Amino acid sequence: MRSPSPAAWIRRALPTRRRAVATAAVAVLLVGAVVWAVRPQGPDVRTSSAMLTVRSGPTGDEPVDLDTTLYLPADASDGNKVPAVLLAHGFGGTKESVRSDAEEFAGRGYAVLTWTARGFGRSGGQIHLDDPDHEVRDAERLLDWLAARPEIRTDAAGDPAVGVVGGSYGGGLALLLAARDQRVDAIVPMITWNDLSRAFLPESTGKDATQGVFKSGWAGLFFGGGGSVGTGPAGISGATGAQPEGAPESAGPPSPGPGGGPGTGPGAAPARAADPSCGRFAADVCAAYLRIATTGRADQAAVDLLRRSSPAGVLDRIKAPTLLVQGEADTLFPLTEADANARGIAANGTPVRVAWFTGGHDGGEGPQTDSDRVKFLTVQWLDHYVKGEGDAPGDDFTWSRIAGFDALDRGLVATGYRTTDYPGTAGTGRRDVVVAGPPQPVANPPAGNPAAISSVPFAGELSSLLGGVAGDIPGQHARFESAPLPDAVDVVGAPTVRIRAASATGEAVLFVKLYDVDPNGAATLPNGLVAPVRLTGLPREIDAAQPVTVTLPGIVRRIEAGHRLRVVVATSDQAYATPVEPAVHTVALADGVVGLPTVDGEPIPTAAVVWRWVLAGLLAAIVVGLVVVVAVARRRNRRQDTSIHPAYAGTPLAVRELRKEYADGFVAVSNVDFDVHPGQVVGLLGPNGAGKTTTLRVLMGLTQPTAGEIYVFGHRLVPGSPVLSRIGALVEGPGFLPHLSGLDNLKAYWRATGRPWADAHFDEALEIAGLGDSVHRRTKNYSHGMRQRLAIAQAMLGLPELLVLDEPTDGLDPPQIAEMRRVLQRYATDGRAVLVSSHLLAEVEQTCTHAVVVNKGRIVASGPVEDIVGESPSVLFEVSDPAAARTLLDGLDGVRVLPDTDGQLVVDTNGTARSEVVAELVRAGIGVDRVVPRRRLEDAFLALVGENSRGSGDR
């Protein structure tokens, strides 16, 4: 069906002056869209690369070549000095890993120095894990080099105006450099650590790292690869996810150093270490890893080495304002690492701001809305503290959680929140949820195999993806479960639970997890996070066990109403090293309560949301204006009529002199006049373009007639008329939500009508439609016929007194068509009536009591089907040679052999006596076995509208 163009509709609805206003509003929107599309881009950036030789090491005189690139705004010069950003990459990456971030910073007016850390890529030296004497001192020498550049703004001689940004390995460097070198003006460490020993040897009851459970999955990935595995940078774009090492640079001699100054090295790619077990790691780092990986336990020397590369011991020396960005999807460096950094830095009076986002080592950048928020916070922080522009950012705490899918691009959307005071991982409120279950035995598998899978590096909550198949191993875990929650809980922070354990071995390594279980039983482990614990001094019997408080990793998650909490205590986990000796432990909950931290905050509007609201507001204003103008114009001609025409009070439908003409002059319906009475099934027939669907659209208020009236039980039909509630309709095909069952779709439709629930008559409608148990299946699994029958059931909800259906048998197979026929006949009882439009004339003949035949916008016949069929002049001849008979009869004047008659010889005699036709056949030697009057609706229809009759295209 064709509808008028928007321009034509506006022309008809608006007077000239109002039309000009509407056109101007549309023009403003179009101009705004064009301006937005062609808005100027950021300034050009120029780059220069070099191998810089710096001197560091314990004595400060060990040379190492660093592969560097300097990004400068196009207008930076000796006369226009700019502030700087030292941009560090993640573990296993190179300077190429942060190229896009560097370009964006430079486009914002910063000089950006990137470099490949020692031990990686083309840089020389060995990996010391951000050791203060090596990687940190390397960065100090880079600050010296920046201070000597003519384009760099300085705070004093040798002191560049500089901020340090980095993610993961680069974030740790930012913290350690700020503690060592007071020239740093601001830092933005992302997804990084506080205590490297605790990060790789966590213990969730508060024990020292020497008692920690070795995070073998992550450690093996880093050390086993010898530094070849990359983790993504965390720069201005918030790109904190894991990614491969940057693409190698082209071979050949390096380009001259920035400015061609001194300190430019030869640039030869460094040779790999001879010991394959160490790769490019320094010998002491490699030895510590090999000891831990072999025994699964850390000695004090190994812990001390890891703490040498940890900000935990030097936080009180950090004077640079610090923005800490930490990922919620991070099994490597969870939220507690940023929490410890924040508390240690703030204790010395240094400005600190904390932001949690939905990405991390396991979650990448998170949704675009979250990436944009991190970008804004980073730029705001540096602009104020390094560039000296803008108001102080403050110390608000911000966090985010996944809110759903974007309606435009179907990508994930994160909603950000903020609150004035940083609550830490304990939250500002607490919700206690009771979980229950008896003490349960759990087995530690020999050699830790098979092991449960909760996460793997970069993969996050793998057990959720696998649907629990490779999650917790039977016999190796205990479950404790809550009742369904009466209302939703927004968890922000680290939940706590108290457990008890007993073992004949006297000790146990356990993994505590908190699942979100939906009403269908699907369990989700948020971001694959687990709490490893090592318990010692355990009694043999559980009754003698003392309670131990376990602090689970921090999460941000909404536990919906009706969901349950499940606490799982397991003996194995693929990501950790566990005891190799088999054993059986007993575990129980101490008090049966899980403490959920909560934080009250206000949502943060994103730029996308703001612009969409602005655009939606403009469009809404235009639409409202048009609606008001059209309503005023129509009010002059039509008013709500609550009176009842006495002649039609008992008639379900009376159509009087209906006419529909479009703005371009096309007349879809010129003069249609018919009735539908109680108990009737009326078929509306006509060729394509005759005006059938237009008539139905007018009837349902989907378009307005040019002239004429429609009465439903005596009420004149106008848009919004209350009498429409007495009509059920299926016009222009069914539409259902695919993820809902048939019954749920019907319930959702009925709720949308706002009518009382008791008036729905679900059972009666479903019985008439005959869907059976299929009504409980999701509609995405329905066949076309089932969807049609569900649409019929939807139209029948409330048992409306008039049912209007457009092609209800479209796409159905013969058995389904026969069933639909019975459905319609059953419905037209108890005073109800049906109006059905269909092109299947045989079905109309068997289903309908009455028919209305429309051709070229006019009624050419109406009345009982028997009366219309009775006018047919067709005759069926059974002959000995049908082919010869067809040839003969085609040559007789006034006699027409009808086509498409399934091989039968059906003849329209057009007044010629049947005896004369028989005589002609006999004279030709063709035997005539039987002559039967052919009374079919199809014959009558063809006689009424003509075999080649067509409309001009129904609208």
TrEMBL record:
PROSITE patterns: ABC_TRANSPORTER_1, ABC_TRANSPORTER_2. GO terms for molecular function: ATP binding; ATP hydrolysis activity; dipeptidyl-peptidase activity. The keyword Membrane applies. Gene3D superfamilies: alpha/beta hydrolase, Galactose-binding domain-like, P-loop containing nucleotide triphosphate hydrolases. InterPro entries: AAA+_ATPase, AB_hydrolase_fold, ABC_transporter-like_ATP-bd, ABC_transporter-like_CS, Galactose-bd-like_sf, P-loop_NTPase, Xaa-Pro-like_dom, Xaa-Pro_dipept_C. Keywords: ATP-binding, Hydrolase, Membrane, Nucleotide-binding, Transmembrane, Transmembrane helix, Transport. The chain crosses the membrane at residues 610-633. Residues 233-274 are annotated as: Disordered. Residues 236-250 have a biased composition (Low complexity). Residues 653-881 form the ABC transporter domain. Belongs to the ABC transporter superfamily. This is Alpha/beta fold hydrolase. It comes from Micromonospora endolithica. The lineage of its organism: Bacteria, Bacillati, Actinomycetota, Actinomycetes, Micromonosporales.
